[in-house]
């Protein structure tokens, strides 16, 4: 059983109204209706609850619908599945505008988190916690504030910078430059690294010293501070006890989904099989759908549907298919399944008969029912098999666009949860892995390459590829210094991190979003423009301001 904590905190958006949010996280909830927040936060219990509340917005992004939309849709690796209602995130059409509620949900949720962090920093110095407890809690708070600002500034660009708590709606605001935002981010993270020194044991999703170093490595790389990125990535690789799991597929086994027990996971957002301890019914004022039924939702987003095919129905083991994302032809083609274990560790290509009411003639339960093929299959071969085959030409048109109805494709199975109580249960106990050790190796490789040391870059990549090699293929999987290019690094990151909510940021960081979405995503190609490297500021946030002439929308959006 995971360690579960609960909190209560009143929080506020940048210009929104005051609201009371309760959510499960690190502490047993206590009813304090008879005392003011000022009195409560001056107690040890209140201070701990306030700090715990700072974690809440991590769960609106990682493992949730909007977080996947803003990181996977419209990239080179994912296309819209046939059941998605959000094609404009994929094709960058004119419908993708500032009135989209998902942008407002992210904006307000992360600013609420920032406000909780600011409030906690104000009360912490005078709290009755011990000096050592204060240091640790300050490190957690500063990490989380930096974490939210990173997501906001990379998503929206120049944004208001708040370092003091907000207790009433504001009607004026200015946008601070991205450089100013990152100055605060790095200051917070360097302080967190000092305050959390020696805190290295996972504690149910709390921030640790290596988690801070991992975020610093990612953000230094984002800001082209390659020497610093390499130093921090090496720190995570060498100074702590993390190890790559020997089997890539086992990394994603539901029995290894508790991030605190997985040797490769540096930090994670925790979920529980008890839905009362997830996000069920939270943040209703911002848009219930974006949190939906609680728990981790990634397991339902990347699955195909084979309705009407003999012998098949979806079940607990194969997952509930929401058919939101399908892999691009590019993503499938960059894997060599004869050498790379990440192919079978990431994708499912065969489904077995599990529906006794729809078996084909001669078919038994457990027989092959549906097969997906990356290569063309002849009519003669199809006729020789009792099962249905969908080959690459059934799934994709010549230009890479998927064929209608966009239901039949390889299933991304990393996030599967066959321990759910029933086939239609949405909430999953699977933790959302935010930082994995393999990312540190690939950050170190990219930083080394940018610093002119391709041989060193290749050595880091080869650690990741050695783990990925099928038996007998380790030598064939090794790469050379001459292989090190930015496009190769991006291909390698796609093989390693497909679906893990990194891709949009990877492409933006490397300046490749427009180029690669145009080349590999036929949905995005006709519409994507340079301004799509930023998302629109939510319209309602601008409309309520008295100084609209000073707080302008991002170019290209209404």
Automatic annotation (TrEMBL):
<protein>
    <submittedName>
        <fullName>RagB/SusD family nutrient uptake outer membrane protein</fullName>
    </submittedName>
</protein>
<dbReference type="InterPro" id="IPR033985">
    <property type="entry name" value="SusD-like_N"/>
</dbReference>
<dbReference type="Pfam" id="PF14322">
    <property type="entry name" value="SusD-like_3"/>
</dbReference>
<dbReference type="Pfam" id="PF07980">
    <property type="entry name" value="SusD_RagB"/>
</dbReference>
<feature type="domain" description="RagB/SusD">
    <location>
        <begin position="406"/>
        <end position="557"/>
    </location>
</feature>
<dbReference type="InterPro" id="IPR011990">
    <property type="entry name" value="TPR-like_helical_dom_sf"/>
</dbReference>
<keyword id="KW-0998">Cell outer membrane</keyword>
<dbReference type="InterPro" id="IPR012944">
    <property type="entry name" value="SusD_RagB_dom"/>
</dbReference>
<feature type="domain" description="SusD-like N-terminal">
    <location>
        <begin position="91"/>
        <end position="221"/>
    </location>
</feature>
<keyword id="KW-0472">Membrane</keyword>
<keyword id="KW-0732">Signal</keyword>
<comment type="similarity">
    <text>Belongs to the SusD family.</text>
</comment>
């Amino acid at each position: 059983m995971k360690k579960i904590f609960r909190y209560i905190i009143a929080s506020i958006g940048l210009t929104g109204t005051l609201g009371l949010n309760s959510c499960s996280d690190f502490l047993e909830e206590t009813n304090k209706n008879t005392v003011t927040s000022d009195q409560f936060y001056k107690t040890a219990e209140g201070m701990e609850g306030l700090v715990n509340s700072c974690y809440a917005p991590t769960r609106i992004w990682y493992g949730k619908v909007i977080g996947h939309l803003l990181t996977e849709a419209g990239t080179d690796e994912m296309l819209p599945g046939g059941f998605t209602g959000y094609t404009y995130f994929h094709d960058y059409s004119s419908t993708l505008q500032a009135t989209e509620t998902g942008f407002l949900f992210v904006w307000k949720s992360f600013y609420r988190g920032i406000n909780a962090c600011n409030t906690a920093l104000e009360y912490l110095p005078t709290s009755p916690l011990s000096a050592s407890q204060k240091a640790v809690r300050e490190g957690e708070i500063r990490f989380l504030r930096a974490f939210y600002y990173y997501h906001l500034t990379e998503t929206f660009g120049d944004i208001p910078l708040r370092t003091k708590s907000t207790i009433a709606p504001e009607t004026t605001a200015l946008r601070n430059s991205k450089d100013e935002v990152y100055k605060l981010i790095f200051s917070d993270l360097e302080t967190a690294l000092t305050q959390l020194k020696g805190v290295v044991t996972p504690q149910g999703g709390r921030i640790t010293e290596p988690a801070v170093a991992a975020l610093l490595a990612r953000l230094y790389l984002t800001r082209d501070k390659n020497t610093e990125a390499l130093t921090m990535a090496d720190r995570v690789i060498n100074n702590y006890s993390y190890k790559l799991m020997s089997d890539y597929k086992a990394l994603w086994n539901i029995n290894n989904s508790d991030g605190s027990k997985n040797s490769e996971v540096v930090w994670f957002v925790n979920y529980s099989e008890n839905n009362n301890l997830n996000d069920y019914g939270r943040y209703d004022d911002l848009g219930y759908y974006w949190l939906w039924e609680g728990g981790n939702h990634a397991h339902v987003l990347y699955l195909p549907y084979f309705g009407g095919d003999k012998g098949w129905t979806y079940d607990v083991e194969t997952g509930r298919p929401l058919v939101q994302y399908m892999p691009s032809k590019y993503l499938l083609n960059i894997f060599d399944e004869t050498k790379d274990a990440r192919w079978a560790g990431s994708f499912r290509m065969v489904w077995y008969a599990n529906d006794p009411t729809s078996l084909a003639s001669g078919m038994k339960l457990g027989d092959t029912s549906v097969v997906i093929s990356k290569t063309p299959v002849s009519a003669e071969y199809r006729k020789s098999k009792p099962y249905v085959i969908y080959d690459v030409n059934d799934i994709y048109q010549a230009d890479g666009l998927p064929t209608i109805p966009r239901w039949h494709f390889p299933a991304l199975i990393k996030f599967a949860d066959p321990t759910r109580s029933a086939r239609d249960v949405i909430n999953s106990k699977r933790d959302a892995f935010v930082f994995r050790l393999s990312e540190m190796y690939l950050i170190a490789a990219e930083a080394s390459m940018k610093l002119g040391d391709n041989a060193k870059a290749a050595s880091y990549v080869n650690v990741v590829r050695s783990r990925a090699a099928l038996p007998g293929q380790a030598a064939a999987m090794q790469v050379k210094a001459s292989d090190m290019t930015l496009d190769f690094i991006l291909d390698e990151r796609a093989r390693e991190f497909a679906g893990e909510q990194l891709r949009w940021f990877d492409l933006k960081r490397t300046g490749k979003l427009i180029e690669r979405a145009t080349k590999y995503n036929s949905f995005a190609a006709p519409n994507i423009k340079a301004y799509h490297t930023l998302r629109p500021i939510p319209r309602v946030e601008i409309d309520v301001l008295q100084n609209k002439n000073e707080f302008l929308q991002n170019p290209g959006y209404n």
